[in-house]
Amino acid sequence: METQKLNKGFAHWVRQSTTARMLMIGFIILVLLVPLLFIKDLIRERSLRQQDVVTEVSGLWGKEILFMGPILKIPYNTYQESTKIIKDAKKVITERTKKINYAYFFPSTLAIDANVDAVKKDRGLYETSVFTSEMNFKGAFEMPDFGSKDISADDVLWDKASILMKTSNLKGIKNQITMQFGERPLVFLPKYQENNKDIYGVDELVLHELHSGTIKGFTSSTTQLSFTTQMTVNGSQKIRFVPIGEKTTLTMESNWGDPSFTGSFLPEENGQENVTPKGFKAHWKVLQINRQFEQAFFGHLPDLREFSFGTELLVPVDEYQKSERSAKYGYLVITLTFLVFFLIQTISTIQIHPFQYLMIGLALVMFYTLLISISEHQNFLKAYTIASVSVVGLISLYSRSILKNRKFVVLVFTSLTALYLFIFVIIQLESYALLVGSIGLFAILATVMFASRKIDWNQS
Question: How far is the C-alpha of 230 from the C-alpha of 140, rounded, in Å?
């Protein structure tokens, strides 16, 4: 008998006590964190799948383009002396050995004109950007200076000089590369690199070498040699160049309306005035004084990829990134929605069962699965609208059977609609997301404080 009275007393306390209701709501929120975490993992999994598809398409069409060249490569003789002591003859012999090294000289002027024809490639539910670029190079080399390194002119092997170009994308090249070097036509061929390693070691973006063969007739009396060449290449996502000219200029024109200018140098005037939804045109000018390397290297050509610049052709909307950002606000949506129902329950005599809170919470969690699945087939705005309207409508209809009062149902509907609109605005913003989010949360806090000012929190 006593046990039954205690059980009834505890049940009555749970139904009537504000503290008990708050504890119960807190526990349900903790339970709902589990499916929210699963949804975040689902978004990451789908996003990684998208990256795999992008990598697959890029591998078939042509990887991103990184280009460095042309570079004048001239061999020269170096000498090393060593001494050898012969004990039996009691004398010292000096031996002189000869070794061939290479000097690398960059052009004094380098002008690049790149026309990039970009398209979207779809693979199932996913898409990425690919392009075909026609690139024209022209410039000139000054007479190489070996005197600064005390290398005798007789030790320079002028007749074995060659032109070197380095690119990350041999597979995408669509024409035989021929350079007009002075009055000589030069044909470029690749050089075998064991295990796909270049002189810089292993990297995600290996620079393959193209060689011209020897430049016959090139001598120390040559004052200046001009060059022109043209290359057509398929690539994906990015196109970049290393500014090896003493004066390097790049003009890039494309039909892609969402470029991102990347690398160590931005276009003149940031290039933004020439960007339209139908394409862009940008111009770069980089001088030797703007970058941290000289015009000639002896013995070893260093890795200069960190000085590259160019353009990334972005796919305009990343649906998974926006879905992930919206899922981060899942805790806020559940907490504020439960808070609205809690305040309604507290200021009225309406009883809301824990099971009903759980159903409302699961409906809120379902919003994110709807958003992810629909956004894979529609744009994010349509997906967000359909998912939010479905969830707000479902919870409003469900609350009508719980609250029995039309004004409370209108309050729930208005609160949820405003909340989803607020989160959508924050997701779209980038620079002002923190500011707008902070102001919005402050307004929500002020509203809750105003609505709860007359509640007697001292009830047991």
Answer: 15
* pTM for the structure as a whole: 0.65
- Report yes or no: 309 and 241 within 8 Å, Cβ to Cβ: yes
Cα–Cα distance, 370 to 384 (Å, whole number) = 9
Beta carbons of 178 and 188 less than 8 angstroms apart? yes
- Give the whole-angstrom CA distance, residue 456 versus residue 356: 24
Q: Beta-carbon neighbour count of residue 18 at 10 Å?
A: 16
Q: What is the mean pLDDT of each run of 10 residues along the chain (460 residues)?
A: 50 60 76 76 70 63 81 86 64 73 91 89 66 91 82 82 85 85 81 52 55 69 80 87 92 87 82 74 91 88 89 70 73 79 76 81 83 77 85 85 81 84 76 67 74 60
DSSP-derived secondary structure letter, 266: P
Q: What does residue 113 show for φ and ψ, rounded to 5 degrees?
A: -120, 110
Give the residues across from 428 on adjacent strands: none
**Can you tell me the distance from the alpha carbon of 160 to that of 274, in angstroms, rounded to the nearest whole number?**
45
Alpha-carbon separation of residue 359 from 89, 352, 363, 397, 409 (angstroms): 102, 11, 6, 12, 16
Name which of 145, 160, 146, 142 is nearest 100 in CA terms.
160
